[in-house]
């Protein structure tokens, strides 16, 4: 009887194991087929000189959003209720996108310039009326900035780049002065920092914000004939000496003003954007950082691409990472900005995988007035739009610098 029972148990376990194996094999085969169903034609999101169709569709909805006061109010209130930074970043990424759209297709300048000016003017007005904390998270008020008077390079850098790229599309005397003022403020404060970085929040330097500041300064050099190459060289030397993670070789994301205390190591929601900005300062270093980030942060599941927030998928979620999906450790923030990194370095393989995931998991809603993604918001869509349209501004500056 015992022998029979043991045999029955073994047969049962064999059947269960065969069933699990069959289900696993079926799932793998099913997903490998399903991945192909979510493929998009490359020309839908990539174009050498024109605006890709997906970019047009996203931009159309955003232009409607910025020209319809009620739509804008509802969307911005929804974002600000969760994070005031999202309101600010949605403005900036969209303006940067419009500049690149106008450079790609000059016939659009008459349409995009008024929208750019509306956003820039309103953003500067709100900053002037309410102060820098209007666009910062509440904890920015809990302590004092080390440098006085209080300013955030998060605000100065992104507004500076908005002004610079607007001028790149078509110069405007009023914006020239405002752009130069931001540049001088950033340079002064960055050079006072021990590692040539300024604060985003009290005693918090974010590489994300400082790299945008560098890009804004470089755009100013191109437009106004100034030359800050010596400062850029010192910044790069400092970054290599102080801000590289010893384990991965990737730039860290957050540290104090002294540069000695790192609060956040390499993170996806930072490094993809940083590599894009550093293309203007040192293309080889930027490329090296991108491929290191790809090595440690890129992930895919049966052909669907995404990105970790932290190397190897280890670590917690936070306001930058967005929700992290358990088991596969997908970070919404890192994955969104990975589109920009992959597009900046012409990584078509990774882009294809990312767009599969976008089609499957972001729940696109297509309508006559444009496209939106239910799993995203205005800032997420603006980042995606920038990843599609980026290129012309950077090429003009890099080629122009070489010619000069």
Question: Could you characterize the architecture of this molecule?
Answer:
By secondary structure, the chain is mostly helical. It is 62% helix and 7% strand. It has helices spanning 2-37, 53-67, 69-80, 84-104, 109-130, 153-169, 173-192, 207-224, 229-242, 268-278, 283-297, 332-344, 348-361, 378-389, 392-403; strands spanning 205-206, 254-255, 262-264, 298-301, 304-307, 324-325, 330-331, 364-367, 370-373. It has a 3-stranded antiparallel β-sheet with strand order 1-2-3. Strands 4-5 form a two-stranded antiparallel sheet. Helix 5 (109-130) runs antiparallel to helix 6. It starts with a helix and ends with a helix. The model has no long low-confidence stretch (mean pLDDT 91).
Task: Give the helices and strands, then pairings.
Elements: H1 2-37, H2 53-67, H3 69-80, H4 84-104, H5 109-130, H6 153-169, H7 173-192, E1 205-206, H8 207-224, H9 229-242, E2 254-255, E3 262-264, H10 268-278, H11 283-297, E4 298-301, E5 304-307, E6 324-325, E7 330-331, H12 332-344, H13 348-361, E8 364-367, E9 370-373, H14 378-389, H15 392-403
Helix pairs in contact: 2-3, 2-14, 3-4, 4-5, 4-6, 4-14, 5-6, 6-7, 6-8, 7-8, 8-10, 10-11, 10-12, 12-13, 12-14
């Amino acid at each position: 009887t015992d022998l029979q029972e043991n045999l029955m148990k073994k047969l049962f376990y064999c059947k269960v194991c065969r069933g699990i194996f069959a289900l696993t094999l079926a799932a793998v085969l099913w997903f490998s087929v399903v991945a192909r169903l979510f493929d998009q034609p490359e020309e839908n999101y990539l174009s050498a000189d024109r605006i890709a169709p997906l970019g047009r569709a996203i931009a159309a909805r955003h232009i409607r959003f910025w020209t319809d006061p009620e739509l804008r109010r509802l969307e911005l209130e929804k974002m600000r209720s969760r994070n005031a930074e999202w309101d600010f970043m949605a403005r900036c990424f969209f303006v940067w996108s419009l500049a690149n759209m106008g450079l790609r297709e000059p016939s659009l300048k008459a349409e995009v310039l008024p929208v750019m000016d509306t956003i820039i003017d309103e953003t500067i007005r709100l900053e002037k009326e309410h102060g820098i904390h209007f666009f910062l998270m509440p904890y920015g008020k809990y302590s004092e900035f080390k440098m006085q008077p209080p300013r955030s390079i998060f605000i100065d850098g992104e507004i500076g780049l908005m002004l610079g790229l607007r001028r790149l599309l078509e110069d405007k005397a009023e914006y020239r002065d405002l752009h130069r003022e931001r540049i001088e403020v950033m340079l002064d404060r960055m050079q006072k920092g021990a590692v040539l970085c300024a604060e985003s929040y009290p005693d918090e330097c974010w590489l994300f914000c400082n790299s945008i500041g560098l890009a804004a300064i470089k755009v100013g050099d191109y437009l106004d004939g100034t030359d800050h190459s010596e400062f850029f060289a010192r910044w790069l030397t400092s970054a290599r000496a102080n801000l590289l993670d010893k384990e991965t070789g990737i730039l860290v994301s957050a540290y104090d003003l002294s540069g000695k205390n790192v609060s956040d190591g390499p993170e996806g929601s930072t490094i993809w954007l940083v590599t894009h900005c550093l293309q203007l300062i040192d293309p080889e270093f930027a490329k090296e950082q991108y491929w290191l980030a790809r090595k440690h942060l890129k992930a895919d599941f049966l052909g669907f691409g995404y990105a970790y927030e932290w190397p190897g998928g280890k670590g917690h979620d936070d306001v930058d990472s967005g929700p992290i999906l358990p088991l596969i450790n997908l970070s919404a923030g890192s994955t969104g900005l990975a589109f920009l990194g992959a597009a900046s370095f012409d990584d078509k393989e990774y882009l294809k995988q990312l767009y599969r995931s976008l089609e499957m998991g972001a729940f696109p809603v297509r309508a006559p007035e444009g496209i939106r993604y239910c799993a995203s918001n205005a800032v997420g869509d603006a980042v995606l739009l920038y990843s599609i349209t980026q290129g012309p501004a950077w090429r003009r500056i890099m080629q122009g610098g070489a010619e000069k």
